[in-house]
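Encode chain A's predicted structure.
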Amino acid sequence: MVYALVAGTVAVYAVIAKYVLNGVGTAK
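Encoded structure for chain A:
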């Protein structure tokens, strides 16, 4: 269960980082 929670959190952070990088790329 704990491992699933950690994996889910990592996936969420990966998606957020992807959107942030895309936002910076479009802004610049």
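Helices lie at 2-27.
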